[in-house]
Amino acid sequence: MKVLGVESSCDETGIAIYDTARGLLGHALHSQVAMHEEYGGVVPELASRDHVRRALPLLEQALADSGIAAGEIDAIGYTEGPGLAGALLVGAAVACSLGMALDKPVIGIHHLEGHLLSPLLSASPPAFPFVALLVSGGHTQLMQVDGVGQYKLLGETVDDAAGEAFDKSAKLLGLGYPGGPAISRLAEFGLPGACKLPRPMLHSGDLNFSFSGLKTAVLTMVRQQEAGSNICEQGKADIARGFVDAIVDVLVAKSLAALKASGLKRLVIAGGVGANAQLRAALDAAAKKRGFSVYYPELAFCTDNGAMIAFAAAMRLQKHPDAARREYGFSVRPRWPLEELG
Ligand code: KG4
Ligand code: ZN
Q: Please, what sign has the CA dihedral across residues 181, 184, 188, 191?
């Protein structure tokens, strides 16, 4: 079965084709980062308009990469939510009109299910069950994943998401958007321990997170340094280092606690923050020390992409062959709890 996937929930347009017999055939992606950069964050209306511009050329590119004709596609999956309403509507409209034109069934996919299953696209995929740490710009959750559609929420952030904390703290340090990669690079030049930031909820006894206090701590440190003199590059790097060390400590500690609570030995990292080098190094060290396995999506599939949507749609259709529809009216779900999936 060949499934086309369309992702447009935020600031990346992604189109891909996954074949259950041969794997990923091709994928095409356009990131809007450069366009949103000058505004310091995603501008929803601009995002929607850009998805409109990019979708069809990316579709052609993905088909050409795959070496198949549009008519050979068996089903089309698109991100139905959660995400920006206008952006989601573009992908849904493209997928459903294509389905109608080609007379192929369509299926709405949960964006986070795409992220959760994305490590299964890699060369040595994890087996079920596993604990997943989902760390993206909009979400921070620990889930127990027993199979496709079998997701149990173990803990989540009570305020900002991890990616949001990276982006907001980077902004306070005068770094560009998105801040995650920038603050991570700057942290490499910082002195460990020079700026000690709090580890929120580290000892809360549950599997929840809180990151808004970290951003406030970064703001306080930036102000303190500015009061002394103009904030210097080394000072900024030290704050970045303190921030990254704090957030990584919390993410690792809670992931270990989730493994312990569930009795599982496999940890899967998904979502944009999963691309973070310091987080990967700390998790690899913990896995070696404590004897569990850790799995990451390929770097290209950490942040938003069409491949994870094509793959999630294929997995879902294998489990529920009747889930695809030949009704081409559509709606989107900007808010959609993952646990509603079956
Ligand atoms: O999963 P994603 O592409 O989009 C959402 O579904 O939200 O995640 C984007 C988030 C942004 O907050 C970005 O700053 C963060 O992932 N991110 C990183 C890194 N690369 C992306 N954060 C830390 N280190 C990175 N290398
Ligand atoms: Zn995402």
A: positive
pLDDT grade for 342, boundaries at 50, 70 and 90 = confident
Q: Give residue 129's pLDDT.
A: 98
**How many A from CA of 140 to the centre of ligand 1?**
11
- The encoded tokens of residue 247 equal 């957030």
Strands (E), the chain: 2-7, 12-19, 23-31, 75-81, 106-110, 130-135, 140-147, 150-156, 266-270, 293-295
What range defines the domain where residue 27 resides?
A: 2-116+301-340
Q: Are residues 312 and 289 in the same domain?
A: no
* pLDDT value, residue 232: 86
Atom of ligand 1 nearest to the CA of 163: 12
Residue 121 lies in a domain: no
List ligand 1's pocket residues with C-beta within 6 A. 10, 136-138, 163, 166-167, 178-181, 184, 271-273, 275-276, 303-304
pLDDT tens digits for 264-285? 999 999 999 999 999 999 999 9
Task: From 9, 96, 16, 4, select the one nearest 51 (Cα to Cα).
Answer: 9
**Taking the complete model, does pTM exceed 0.90, yes or no?**
yes
Which of 13, 29, 166 best tests ligand 1's pocket when mutated (most atoms within 8 Å of CB)? 166
In the reported structure, the alpha carbon of residue 13 is separated from the centroid of ligand 2 by a whole-number distance in angstroms of 11
Rounded Cα–Cα distance for residues 290 and 256 (Å): 9
Whether a cis peptide bond, with omega within 30° of 0, leads into 119 is: no
Strand order in the sheet with 130-135: 150-156, 140-147, 130-135, 266-270, 293-295
Residues 110 and 153 in one domain: no
- The CATH number of whichever domain residue 285 belongs to comes to 3.30.420.40
Q: Residue 339 has what pLDDT?
A: 86
Q: Residue 230's pLDDT band (boundaries 50, 70, 90)?
A: low
Closest Cα partner for 294 from 308, 281, 312?
281
